[in-house]
Write a structure and sequence with these properties.
heterotrimer, A mainly alpha, B mainly alpha, C mainly alpha, A: two-stranded antiparallel sheet, 20 helices, globular, C: mainly alpha, 2 domains, 3-stranded mixed sheet
Chain lengths: 503, 121, 490
Amino acid sequence: MIKHLPALLIVIPLLAAIITPIIGRIHWVLSWYTVTITTFISFVISLSLLQTVLLQGDISYWMGGWQPPWGIEYAIDNLNVYVMIIVSFMALAGAIYSKNNINVEIDEARKPFFYSVYLLFVTGLMGMVVTGDIFNIYVFLEITSLSGYALIAIGKKRQALVGAYNYLIMGTIGATFFLLGIGYLYLMTGTLNIADLAARLPEFYQTKAIFTAFTFLVVGLCIKLALFPMHFWMPNVYTHAPSAVSAVMAATGAKVAAYAIIRVMFTVFEPEFYTLAPFNIQPILLILAVAAILAGSIMALAQTDIKKMLAYSSVGQIGYIVLGISLMSVNGMIGSLIHLLNHAMMKGALFFVVGAVVYRTGLTSIENFRGLGKKMPLSMAAFTIAALSMTGVPLTVGFVSKWYLAVASIEIGMWWLVPVILLSSLLTAIYFWRIIDAVWFKPALGEESHGHEHDDHQKPKSNDAPASMLIPTLTVAMLCLVFGVFAYAPVSLAEKAAVILLK
Amino acid sequence: MVELLAKYNYWIVIILLTTGLYGVMARQNLIKKIIALNVFQTAVLLFYVSMSKIEGGTAPVLIKGAKQIIYDNPLPQVLMLTAIVVGISTTAVALTFVTLIYREYGTIEEDQILELNKHND
Amino acid sequence: MEIIESARPVYAILVSLLAVVFIGISGKYPNLREMWTMLAAVLKFGLVVSMLPIILAGKVIEYHVTTVLPGLDIAFRVDSLGMTLALTASFLWIITSVYAIGYMRSLDEHAQTRFFMCFALALSAVMGAAFSANVFTLFVFYEIITVTTFGLVAHEETSEAIKGARRYLTYLMGTSIFFFLPAMFLTYNYAGTLDFASQGILAGKASYTIISIIFVLYIAGIAKAGMMPFHAWLPSAMVAPTPVSALLHAVAVVKVGVFTVVRILLFVFGIDLLSEIGLGTYLAYFASFTIITASILALKQDNLKLRLAYSTVSQLSYIVLAVALLTPSGITSSIIHITIHAFGKITLFFVAGAIFVATGKKYISQMDGIGRRMPFTMAAFTVGAFSMIAIPPFGGFVSKWYLILGTVEAHMLPIMVVLVASTLLNAAYFLPIIYSAFFKELPTDEVEGLREAPPMVVVPLVITALGTLTLFFWPSLLLDLARMVVSLVM
């Protein structure tokens, strides 16, 4: 049983996805239980895999007992066990959160299907992370994408349909590019196993075919990741999808795409490739990352809808992840990997809070956040913590990744990156402070006329989100603080992974 | 020149790939976009299948008693079976979206939908 | 030097943090709520005082909380410099709490629960800053102070208050992110550590150019010290209720600012390094500019609180100037002035608040003859103002005396001219207020009904005024602490 854990990581949610709509016919809550339990099991399996990796080293699981490179291998090392924990934890938090949230954002009849698709989405993500076969990554990528499209479109808003459609077109183009890249790799090496590819590729590093393969793979994944300027499908998706979906997709989908890029760039290909390749890749990625960081922050500043603002802020945050990758140093990679975790928690918490506001008020405009501090104090406290963390205030997680990115930029002599990081932090502070300020210090809309209220006499009733939404929100927000203070735990794991990647 | 033409299958792949991509970008009609997307995906199928072809090789079906037969590489073909399944699913999902969009907006022209959304926001 | 491991500094920080929770819970019962504030204030002062004998015996208290990242620790270290700030802030918190309760109740202010919560939070952070053992911890608490006091500045929730608070935040947060953080980062990069050391940590670690860049970044980044051109937040912050202006913008926030400057100058750069490069001289002249300019600006203000704010800007630069002289008397003067100015300025702000509570007046031009009806209040004002001008027998004289000694030691006679000019300017903007308060006639329509503010407001300001006197006659404790710092860094 223990031996088969890597396979169970995929099999359990896949089977549960089939069961969910069936038992959902009795009552939809049953499907919620299934999802919660399943994602919880995934989380526990991830933890136990972490333990195994830490104590006994990397795991290689042979699907169906076929020896790689002929069979499909599930290879687990420090890197993917780390991503696995992020994904399964956020999937669990999202599942718990969704119970009440989808009451307002999804039709009653669609709920069992929502949960079924949710599990397929998780299956795909887990598959992408766990597999050691590059074609398998493509298959799971498509499973993730297809279920992702459905998750977005399942909401009540009709704009979500258009968003999902555009995402589908872009996603399919990206995945097809990825497939094309795999084709080139296979053509040159005759293998699809990642470890095997890594061993055979170096002799072809200078060929144009391999360079083409690399370009297709990375561009394809960058579309999925929504790296600027390939991000334009994303804001509409995050804005109009149900909040639980936005939260989970922002927290997990983009992270797994980033993971795939890291895998391709540093395991399939090795750092040596970047010195031998006919074209210099690093500056291109670096410039895209910087452009994403600045453009994302500036566009976020211009938004009046909170969900759209968060989406554009994601564009900027993805820039940070790519920035760390493009620095190609251990500290940069640590920064990137830590930011994977951090952004998952921060953005997850922020979208959770937005979902709670939608649940209570039905509105997502920033105007509408005025005076919410009195009505939804706990949710807004979580929002404030996550927002401070996004800004990179010390003792929150956001600070840790920015610190590592800054250290790495100085290390490789790129001084000018430090002001870029600072500028974007400042912009982030500005666009979040507007909201925090409105939340705590402005009277709610329509209440201004009362003038000075004496809260001691007539305190507005606190009407916070239900516990099933508050608990995951607060947990994730608290983790932003916990990992900000005790940053060494994730950092040490990320450091191990980074050292192996850049060996 | 002849050498270039001899690789006509790859030329076809490139032509299909760019045609498809152009179609996806340039068409306003949501259905036509999907058709173009299919063309785009098909090009990749062709790419895989033609790279598995070995000169003088035959379909990878075991022939009893025969020796010294060159088979084509079966793996890319199998991979493409998966890709076809993926392609069909994508098309199915996409068409579902288009139906739903038509139901909600009464049109499947992208510019008109954008116009309607603008009024909505 | 003997090091004692003890969590007492942490308790001193946690006391008011815990109080925040209780204040929040008991928001519906004002008396209970205020009891928590008072209890926390007294306990905090008690904890700080309990550490005093250890410090005076020449020992330091250390406590390591956690390592965030390798090289970035949250750790505390109580030494004579931190002790001075902690003693001043925690003692004045008790007085201010009494005053704040009186003030807020007299005016029937809104959101008092939030007010007292933010206040207690800010005080926790001040203790944290005073006891920081490294630049990182100091930076963290520096930022926490900014965030928590934002709530106090924006308290009124009027558009003017929100605007002032935004400016406050923009200046303080902006400079700290843009200059302080990179400075800390560069320090870490070159020195390999951020722990304060009595001889500095940067000596010999980088070229003079780099060190000068780091120096400029630090000075620009610590906007709480009110150095021009980053001083404009302080006048904006005057939209806050007067107890906030009193404790935070005369004591806690701004003193953390100058404290940070002193701490960084002495314990990150070190005296030897600074005098080697000659950075101290530049800073001294730079501070002189602020002293004079701010005093001139103060002359033009009719709003009493604004005049006091500009006076604070000017006085803060005294502290920076004094430490920049890099001589024993200069450093002594800067450290004792942290406390002495605190007592004087808090008295003046209390008076401004008392006048507002009693009469609703904010402008100096309305205050003719007010001293006849509010003798205690205006007497206290006189004491505070004399201390600012440095007239004996008030505390301000002691620090200015040491400052002048310092300029002599440093052979910087032009600075002496600055000091004389600024003393005259101080007199020029304070004496007319006193004159008109006592010697001009009250406007006839106001003769009736004008009397002292409630005792909760008046008693605290009398106490701080007496404190200013005490500091002249018995400055020994303060001087001892300052001398210990001097012997440490020289």
